[in-house]
């Protein structure tokens, strides 16, 4: 069975016209899981900064179900439903506090505070807003993009089932929910186990906070540990134990090309991803930056996005999606 949707349907899921156009171009999809995998690939690797901002602007701020930039009546109704718990748990004082923090956030970052609000109370939303407010703008930009992807997955689930109660792929789907789905005649959605990838299992993205832009033109190298010891030991370097997997140069959006083959299940082990920051910024503090991480046997089917937030004299990283 194939599921065919139009561009307007995908625009209701994510307010980026580039995202909706790309999704419509490769539809139909044989499963919900395949659509989610495609959506992640398009959102994180094909939609540019302007597309992200367009999608952010399509959301009303939390506590207000209306936005002048919402793309359709469908997206407006979904936003209202997603905020229903927050609105139901709000008091006059918490709504006022939320309004003030929303305004403060928008003034600092230039876009609406974005969070997948489904099932969250107003106090929970305020707590998360306060937690994220101290972030640097480029960090918060990435956080907002991650939240947008959560919302997109939730709305794709609604699109595929016509029901508001089904979770996106990758989340727990209980036997009780499956029974209800069968009873209602709706197609059951199960967590994605081994969906075909559209990108390599290890990717990266460089953001240059000193320039306020993506880090373009940086050489990136991926290696895997195959030394005589089962794992590299701190303080005992063995350069012969690292086996080259692939290399690339970041594009204008700061994203690397393919660092390894596209496989459904990545080989478990210890990997090292290195960035030639010295060539990119000759006057900087770091001649190069290397990040070592381990992929467990239970994580073979997962995607590992390793972004770095860089300036000539500092860098940070975390595991993204």
Protein model, in words:
Helix 7 (92-109) packs parallel to helix 8 (122-132). The protein has helices spanning 7-13, 17-26, 32-45, 49-57, 73-82, 84-88, 92-109, 122-132, 137-161, 175-184, 277-280, and strands at 202-203, 206-208, 213-214, 219-225, 242-249, 269-275, 289-295, 304-305, 308-311, 314-317. A 4-stranded mixed beta sheet has the order 3-2-9-10, with no helix packed on it. The protein has a 4-stranded antiparallel beta sheet with strand order 5-4-6-7. The chain has a two-stranded parallel sheet with strand order 1-8. It is globular and about 60 Å long. The chain is 38% helix and 14% strand. With 321 residues, the protein is of the alpha+beta class.
Separation, N- and C-terminal Cα atoms: 29 Å
E-strand count: 10
> From the alpha-carbon coordinates, what is the Rg to the nearest angstrom?
21 Å
Strand order of the largest sheet: 3-2-9-10
Shape: globular
Secondary structure tally, helices: 11
What characterizes the major β-sheet? 4 strands, mixed
The assigned structural class equals alpha+beta
Query: Helix proportion of residues, in percent?
Result: 25-40%
Provide the low-confidence segments as ranges.
163-195
What is the H/E order?
HHHHHHHHHHEEEEEEHEEEE
Mean pLDDT: 81
Strand content: 5-15%
Gist?
This protein is α+β, with helices and mostly antiparallel strands. The chain is built from eleven helices and ten strands.
List keywords for this structure.
about 325 residues; alpha+beta; 10 strands
């Amino acid at each position: 069975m194939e599921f065919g949707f139009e561009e307007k349907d995908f625009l209701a899921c994510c307010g980026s016209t580039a995202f909706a156009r790309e999704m419509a171009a490769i539809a139909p999809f044989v499963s919900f899981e395949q659509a989610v995998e495609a959506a992640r690939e398009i959102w994180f690797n094909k939609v540019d900064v302007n597309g992200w901002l367009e999608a952010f602007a399509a959301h009303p701020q939390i506590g207000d179900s209306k936005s002048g930039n919402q793309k359709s009546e469908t997206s407006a109704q979904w936003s209202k439903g997603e905020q229903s718990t927050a609105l139901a748990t709000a008091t006059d004082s918490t709504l006022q506090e939320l309004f003030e923090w929303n305004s403060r956030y928008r003034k600092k970052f230039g876009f609406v505070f974005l969070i997948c609000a489904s099932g969250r109370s107003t106090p929970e939303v305020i707590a998360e807003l306060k937690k994220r407010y101290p972030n640097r703008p480029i960090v918060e930009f990435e956080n907002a993009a991650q939240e947008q992807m959560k919302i997109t997955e939730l709305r794709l689930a609604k699109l595929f089932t016509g029901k508001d109660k089904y979770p996106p792929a990758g989340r727990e789907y209980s036997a009780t929910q499956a029974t209800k789905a069968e009873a209602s005649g709706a197609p059951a959605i199960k967590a994605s186990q081994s969906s075909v990838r559209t990108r390599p299992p290890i990717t990266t993205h460089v953001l240059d906070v000193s320039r306020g832009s993506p880090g373009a033109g940086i050489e990136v190298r991926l290696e895997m540990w195959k030394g005589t010891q089962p794992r590299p030991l701190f303080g005992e370097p063995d350069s012969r134990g690292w086996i080259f997997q692939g290399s690339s140069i970041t594009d204008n959006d700061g994203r690397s090309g393919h660092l390894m083959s596209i496989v459904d299940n990545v080989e478990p082990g210890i990997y090292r991803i290195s960035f030639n920051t010295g060539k990119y910024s000759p006057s900087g503090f770091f001649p190069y930056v290397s990040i070592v991480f381990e992929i467990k046997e239970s994580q073979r089917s997962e995607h590992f996005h390793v972004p770095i937030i860089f300036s000539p004299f500092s860098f940070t990283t975390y595991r993204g999606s």
